[in-house]
Design goal:
The chain is of the alpha+beta class and 415 residues long.
Length: 415
């Protein structure tokens, strides 16, 4: 497997575009006083009809795009050609939301001369504000005209809200000697606490695989990647992960589980795990990436539950911001995890590029140098190694520290 460039355009037959239509307010450069318009809407399209799969937020409040996309894929038999997505307005909790989301699909369908039900729609941003459709009506022809096989960056920047960096990742792999590609883009900085999906994540591949196995692979990998991410404990109303497979690598279609399917799943994990890591590192106001590795568990669910419990602890996240090796907060979070294990067997180490320090052995604290610990925690990527000493299964969870800036960002996010 090889890491490559291209994001959602890394796979053969996918082209993209992005533009500014006016949903985002222009930003002003305080130094030069220049007005800047950042992309706020994007479109990407396959040359041929794709098998498609998706997972959606489990929040009872669901954005209109979620409802429309789900209905479209059901009508089309899990087939899709195009995806349109906007940022800054979630089109959620609006009386006309479904009508607007459906209209976005219709605009793309008319412009590309494809069935409306083969269009996926997504929105992200402020909840409860009416989505203006007029700017989108003007933007769709521009997006369609601008479609190109190397404009993944235009699309990746168009879905950013409070994100500080674009998030893309792609790989090249082989299925029985046939070279295939799989890539994706993601957005998200806050309101991230997954439940079946998290943030907006778009994945494309030219590998030929049935829609049934595509859905199974996506659901399985979401469980150990995006669902193991938490920034602030809030599950968004618009969370969605979708994947499209157009088969243009011309490998024999994967229709049964086996070696080829596992190879595909490994590629999917590589992309989704790295996008998850990027999302965690770019959490709102974050200064540190936190990665918790729980090993020695008797099963996967236990390992995931314990790792996520630590990552979700606000007190622990605050301690990491303060570079305080307050290991008691780790043990506390492990202790209230909804899983069965013997706390008296648990070991905990804190680790970074600056070294490793043991802070807990057999459920009890051990002596360590606070100065050494502080130096280890001064790095911008911190690893929390937990060993339950109860089995052979390992899982990871990702998050970030909790900082003053998180409150500042969310104190006036809407206004």
């Amino acid at each position: 497997m090889k890491i490559i460039d291209g994001g959602i355009c890394a796979a053969k037959g996918f082209k993209a575009s992005g533009t500014y239509c006016g949903i985002k307010k222009p930003s002003v450069d305080n130094i030069n006083h220049d007005i800047k318009h950042k992309n706020d809407i994007c479109l990407y399209v396959s040359d041929v009809v794709c098998n498609a799969a998706a997972v959606y937020t489990q929040n009872k409040v669901k954005g209109a795009p979620i409802l429309v996309t789900k209905a479209n894929l059901e009508k089309s038999g899990n087939k899709a050609i195009a995806v349109i997505a906007n940022s800054k307005n979630a089109n959620t909790c609006n009386a006309d939301g479904v009508e607007k989301a459906d209209r976005m699909c219709e605009l793309v369908a008319n412009e590309l001369n494809i069935p409306k039900e083969q269009v996926i729609v997504a929105s992200t941003g402020v909840i409860g504000q009416i989505l203006p459709i007029e700017p989108i009506e003007k933007a769709v022809p521009v997006l369609a005209k601008g479609l190109c096989y190397n404009k993944n960056l235009e699309a990746a920047t168009a879905i950013m809200t409070t994100d500080t960096i674009k998030k893309e990742y792609a790989v090249e792999f082989e299925i029985n000697g046939t070279v295939c590609h799989l890539g994706g883009m993601a957005k998200g900085s806050g309101m991230i606490h997954p439940n079946m999906a998290t943030t907006l994540n778009f994945i494309t591949t030219d590998c030929a695989i049935s829609s049934e196995l595509l859905q199974k692979a996506l659901s399985d990998i979401v469980k150990v990647t995006y669902n193991c991410l938490s920034i602030d404990g809030d599950t968004s109303t618009n969370d969605m992960v979708c994947i499209m497979a157009n088969g243009l690598a011309f490998n024999d279609e994967i229709t049964a589980e086996g070696e080829e399917y596992e190879t595909f799943k490994n590629a999917l994990y590589e992309v989704m795990a790295n996008l998850t890591r990027m999302l965690a590192k770019d959490g709102e106001g974050a200064t540190k990436l936190l990665e918790c590795i729980c090993s020695g568990a008797k099963n996967l669910d236990t390992a995931i539950t314990v790792a996520k419990s630590v990552i979700c602890s606000s007190l622990f996240k605050a301690a990491m911001f303060g570079e305080d090796a307050n290991w008691g907060r780790v043990l506390c979070a492990i202790g209230y995890a909804d899983a069965e294990f013997d706390i008296n067997k648990v070991d905990v180490d804190l680790r970074s590029e600056k070294g490793t320090i043991s802070v807990c052995k057999n459920g009890a604290g051990v002596e360590f140098s606070e100065e050494v610990a502080a130096d280890i925690l001064s790095a911008d990527e911190i690893y929390i190694d937990i060993n339950l000493n109860d089995g052979n299964t390992t899982a990871k969870a990702w998050g970030c520290d909790l900082t003053y800036d998180y409150v500042k960002i969310n104190g006036d996010y809407r206004t």
